[in-house]
Amino acid sequence: MPPAKKRTRSYDSAKIRAAVLAQFGNVRDGVAALTPEQLARPTRLGEWTVRELAAHVTMALGAVARNLDEPEPAKRELTLLDWPLATATASARIDEDTRAIDTADLPGLYGRTAARYEERAAGAADERLVQTRLGAMTLADFLVTRTVELVVHTDDLNAATGAGIPYDRQALAACVRLLADALAAKAPGGAVEVRIPPYAVVQCVEGPRHTRGTPPNVVETDPLTWIRLATGRAEWATEKEAARVSASGERADLSDVLPVLS
């Protein structure tokens, strides 16, 4: 019997739009409170300092307005689940563009970015195609990817500074769900059930499909640990040893299929 076709998850557009703006606001407030010493600190993202990481966050949101300023592409090239696995191809260009940002006035940069986002995104239809670095996709899908960018980099900023920037619940939920669905797309199957309460449950990995009762292979972790694993910020063995991941069953080892975004 062929494997069951996976249903594409749907997202509430109004909630996603609000979540993107809310999480950007959280980062904006957190960055505004950082000291010059904190802004100069290194991050876990190669040679980027906190100042460069903070600038990159504005670029991640600013891409919405920039893409909407361009002519609409003729056809869709990228689905939402294509995006996580395609990001590695743009890393060099992203690094170059981030380093080119003028960071002398971070509060002003954040203010202008938020204003442009609200101005351009407000009247744009969800189905409108936008040309991203990785290919043309719908605005609705691109906005879901912005929750991933914002939440992941909020965690990066917190790790580097201890600022404790909060996570908007809707943004965190969308980030967790997209990365979980990307895992299921990368390693299709039904042998392992991955649980990230309270936001997502997916089945993945080839093997006998579970249909009833307690699954024989179960992985469970919290949202932030999952995000770090899915983006290569944490190692499977380390998180499992620290009991931040529980894994039961002979197939419940995801080290070979992580990360899903880099």
Fold and architecture overview:
- With 262 residues, the protein is α+β, with helices and mostly antiparallel strands.
- The protein is built from 10 helices and 6 strands; from the N terminus they run ααααααββααβββααβ.
- The strands form 2 sheets. The protein has a 4-stranded mixed β-sheet with strand order 4-3-5-6. The chain has a two-stranded antiparallel ribbon with strand order 1-2.
- Helix 1 runs antiparallel to helix 3 (50-69), helix 7 packs across helix 8 and helix 8 (169-186) crosses helix 9.
- The chain is globular, with a radius of gyration of 19 Å.
- It starts with 12 loop residues before the first helix and ends in a 14-residue tail after the last strand.
Question: What distance separates the N and C termini?
Answer: 34 Å
Average per-residue pLDDT, rounded, comes to 94
Estimate the strand proportion: 5-15%
Overall radius of gyration: 19 Å
Structurally, the number of domains stands at 2
Arrangement of strands in the largest sheet: 4-3-5-6
Number of separate strands: 6
Provide keyphrases for this structure.
262 residues; alpha+beta; Four Helix Bundle (Hemerythrin (Met), subunit A); Nonspecific Lipid-transfer Protein, Chain A; 4-stranded mixed beta sheet; 10 helices; 10% strand
Topology diagram in text:
Layout: H1 13-32, H2 36-39, H3 50-69, H4 83-86, H5 91-99, H6 106-121, E1 129-132, E2 135-138, H7 139-161, H8 169-186, E3 192-196, E4 200-204, E5 218-221, H9 223-230, H10 236-241, E6 245-248
Parallel strand pairs: 3-5
Antiparallel strand pairs: 1-2, 3-4, 5-6
Helix pairs in contact: 1-3, 1-6, 1-7, 1-8, 3-6, 3-7, 7-8, 8-9
